[in-house]
Amino acid sequence: MEKLILFVDDSPTMRSSVSFCLRNAGYRVTEAEDGQDGLVKLQSIKDEGESVALIITDINMPKMDGIAFILKVKETDSKFVPILVLTTEAEKSMIEKGRAAGASGWLLKPFQSEQLLWAVKKVVWPK
Amino acid sequence: MSEQDETLEIFFSETDELLRAAEESLLALESEPESASDIEQLFRSVHTMKSGAAMVGFMGISEYAHLVENLLERLRSRKLAVTNNLITFLLDAVDFIRSMVDQVSQGEAEVDPEILNQRKSQVKRYLGVEAVGASAEEQEPEAPAKEPVEEADEVFSFYKIGLRFEKHLFYSGQDPLLLLLNLSELGEFVQVVPDLSGLPDYENFSVYDLHISWQLIIKTKFPREDLEDVFMFVKDDNDISIEDITKRYREGVDIELAEKKLGEVLVEESKITEEVLTGALEKQKMLGEILVDEGKVKREDLEKAVAKQEESRKVYRKTTIRVDVEKVDSLVNLGEELGIGLSKTQSLLEKQTGSAPTEVLEEMENLLKVNREFQERVARVRMFPLEGTFRRFQRMARDLALEQNKEVKVIITGLDTELDKEVIEHCTDPLKHLVRNCVDHGIETPEEREAKGKPTSGTITLKAYQRGGRVFVEISEDGQGIDLANIRKKAVEKGWIQEDEVLTEQALLQFIFKPGFSTAAEVTELSGRGVGMDVVRTQLDQLGGTIEVRTEKEKGTTFVLCLPLTSALMEVLHVIVQGTSYLVPVQIVAGTEKFDQALIKNVGAEERVYPFRGDYLPIVDVAKILNLGTPSVNGNSTVVIFVDTGQKVFGIPVDELLNSQQIIVKTLETNYRSVKGLAGATILGDGSVSLVLDLLGIEEMVFKDSFKGDIDHEVEKEGKSV
After folding, report:
1. Helix axis angle, A12-24 relative to A113-123, nearest 10°?
2. Within this chain, do residues B415 and B536 fall inside the same structural domain, yes or no?
């Protein structure tokens, strides 16, 4: 079974292009619109007896932003799941905040599929 | 045996071991060129061979080994680097020594002096002794004029990488092992040392914290940035150090230092001279002497202990002897005859119970038991570990890969697993074919592998283990896997299946064992000897073994061979067909059905079929096939036994199904002549003779040869009665 990645971003364009890239590379992707939706999706994945291999999240999102989302995830039993941040946010202080919250890596938009996949490979075990 | 002969025997068996050890070290060195212990073992092996050969008067071997030893001495002192070229050359040198030894063991001259001289100057060229004079003898084509310089190493760098992770690494979703895995894709780990000193005691241990740090040395073609890149996400919060030690490392000062004796290091660095060291070492006392001097141990106790130790070493050395196989075989035969005699006596005694006291019968029972164990033990003597066979394949895979410019690592496990000598001999060819297949068709070229994100060097694993009364040999590689779509295409082309036929993966894979599957397109220079997987299957069948295959695209293929421990013992079903008793090898029995005459159906005019597990399968009349010509076919049948020969499944109606038992098969050739359809005969416990059916042979007779002959005829007759 292909590894499952949860991708959280409020932009539908972003969601479809990232999902496309990941699916192309042989991963399964579940999409979420914001942090809150991300937590719901995470729970329902768990309810189905599955587990995510990686979470990729945006920072600036309505309802619940990326940092808050990461902090919430760290309170669940998915706390050891690697989390990559994919954002336009390049501010040093923000990156620090993300790291403190427990992000595994920080990637900048716009992304190139090669870079993204290469980063994913760094934190997800091969099948 | 004269004393001289005995010495020779010892020399041959020792040299055999040494050659194997040398080869082993060379292969190990190939994957770990810096391994001092392997260089040392190699050196010792050749050195011992040299002196041994001189002792028994084989001067050619000795002289050649002496030169090779000189060459190895340079390796040992690191004046020469281990390169692939050099290893190939040395493997060749080992082969040459072996060929000389083989010659003399057959009582012939070691070698043509001219060839020996050529070989010797080859080595000398490596040694640089004959740098000028060599050109005169340039006619030998295989003489590598290439300098054994460190060309291959030139592009590699060595980095020492220290990984001190922060305790809470796991909370940031990072996994140190995954990092190591990613790093391993950039090169080869020369050394990995975990530091466990940070592990807390039991009470303070938390499984969510990381307590281990690592220090490793990697040999890589990639620049430093690529190494740093692996740690991109963790380098800020953790203590990651990367140091280029290419220079230090190659000079052998860095890592090897720890393994060397202090004295040697001091001499090497010219702090003291060799003489000073030797002088100092002489002053050093042995442990025992020191203890005696200090009054901790009495001298006589020490001497006793030393004597005991020596005795034990002597015993250890004596634990193996070489025995002619014929001697063992005659023991097997005698044990068998003893068993038959005992069985007969027993049944004679039982017939006249009135006169035979129970003690006698009990004693008989006991003797039979002892004899059974005796036979088993003797069968064990014929068993050998698979080690030699596996080592040979390791070497073969390496050579094959080299010829095809592929990189292959061969891992062998379960070397102690023992098998009957005869089984080993008969499974060597099929195994060889499979290993060859792995290299030829499984493992991709380094470029292809790299493009797929796999390590450039492929891995072939040979694994043996015993489970129950059978030995399993697994051969797996991490290559491209078998293309199922391709198999389907071919099967359709051959008309074996319909285009739209739905088949399981396993069913599709079975086609590779079908005769005629292998096509010219697949025949490479190496595996093309007209031998396909069908031959592998047939050879294993004859041996009473089976083969299974698993494959996954881009992950590789695994073949699992299931072999009997010994070919002499066979598990059989005892059946009665029209009053005659036959034995059917259990391992190919697929199942049994109650016989009902009404269920037989005629298919065309050629085949009669019988329902079995939802299919209609052909049934075969054994008595007819073997030309025993008994009338009233199937009249008394009560059961149909279905057998699966791997090519075909068919049924055999029998009158009676008795028990299953282990028997020792005797071939008919020895006393009579070979009979098609019969694998041999055995004497049953009650002293009666029973025939073992050769179902492959029967299958051939029924489904290939006699389509137009007997069967037609038979079916015609049959047709009326149904």
Report:
1. 70
2. yes
DSSP state of B679: E
Instruction: Give how many domains chain B has, as a whole number.
Output: 6
Q: Calculate how close chain A gets to B214, using CA atoms only, in Å.
A: 18
Q: Are residues B511 and B574 in the same domain?
A: no
Tell me the CATH number at B177.
3.30.70.1110
Closest chain B residue by Cα to residue A98 = B172
CA angle, residues B483, B411, B178, in degrees to nearest 5 = 80
Residues B84 and B110 in one domain: yes
The number of folded domains in chain A is 1
Question: Cα(B561)–Cα(B73) distance, rounded to whole angstroms?
Answer: 43
Same domain for B310 and B356, yes or no, is: no
Q: Are A123 and B173 in contact (CB under 8 A)?
A: yes
Show the domain range for A107.
Answer: 4-123
Among residues B523, B553, B583, which one ends one of the domains?
Answer: B553
Domain carrying residue B78: 3-144
* CATH for A108: 3.40.50.2300
- Residue B131 inside a domain? The answer is yes
Do B428 and B363 fall within a single domain? no
Q: Say which residues have a Cβ less than 8 Å from residue B258's Cβ, sequence separation at least 6.
A: none
pLDDT of residue A53: 92
Confidence at B569, pLDDT banded by 50, 70, 90: low
- B454 to chain A: nearest residue by CA? A126
Residue B572: other Cβ atoms inside 10 A: 23
B63 in a domain, yes or no? yes
Asked if A74's CB is within 8 angstroms of B173's CB, the reply is no
Both structure tokens of B144: 């590598």
Question: Which two tokens mark B122?
Answer: 């080859």
- A105 CB near a chain B CB, below 8 Å? yes
CA distance B489 to B141: 45
Q: Where are the alpha helices (DSSP H) in B352-462?
A: 358-381, 387-403, 421-437, 446-451
Q: Is A102 within 8 Å of B182 when comparing Cβ atoms?
A: no
List pLDDT tens digits, range A66-125.
999 999 999 988 888 999 999 887 888 888 888 888 888 888 877 777 788 888 988 888
Residues B77 and B182 both lie in one domain: no
Is B263 a member of any domain?
no
A82 interfacial to chain B (CB closer than 8 Å): yes
Residues B181, A126: C-beta atoms closer than 8 Å: yes
CB atoms A123 and B181 under 8 Å = no
pLDDT of residue A31: 92
From A84, which residue of chain B is nearest by alpha-carbon distance?
A: B173
In angstroms, the separation between the Cα of residue B549 and the nearest Cα of chain A is 21
The answer to whether residues B396 and B529 belong to one domain is yes
B258 inside domain: no
pTM (2 d.p.): 0.42
Look at A125 and B175 and tell me if their CB atoms are within 8 Å. Answer: yes
ipTM of this model? 0.84
d(CA B165, CA A93): 23
Q: Which domain CATH number covers B519? A: 3.30.565.10
Counting one residue from A and one from B, how many pairs have CB atoms under 8 Å apart?
A: 46
- Residue B214 is given by DSSP the state E
Closest CA to B647 of B602, B595, B698: B698
